Amino acid sequence: MGGIPTGIAWRRRSIAEATLRRGTSPSPEIDDPDIPNMETSLHLTQEDAGLLREVIAHYLSELHSEIAHTDNYDLRETLHGKQHRLNALMEQLGSS
Question: How many CB atoms lie within 10 A of CB 78?
């Protein structure tokens, strides 16, 4: 099809390319030395925990697709790390 790229794939590629030019990841990593390492407690109702599980599950499915379409190794590793952390959060939230 040629022409100007449009849609989500174009946006993802643009973000990835800009990120690589800056030399930073799209979002800060948990082990980033500039971010203090602290534990946080979050108290949720069952309804809110269910909503959070739904949101994370939806994002994980989108993230899986993004990982599959990412050619850059470093970005792919960053996304895999994010996927791993989100799966751990899902385990902490349990099921209901």
Answer: 20
**26 occurs within a structural domain:** no
- pLDDT, tens only, 23-74: 544 444 445 555 566 678 888 999 999 999 999 999 999 999 999 999 999 9
Rounded alpha-carbon distances, angstroms, from residue 87 to 19, 22, 24, 30, 55: 24, 28, 23, 15, 12
**Distance linking the first and last C-alpha atoms of the chain:** 46
Domain that holds residue 96: 44-96
The answer to whether residue 6 is domain-embedded is no
Number of structural domains the chain divides into: 1
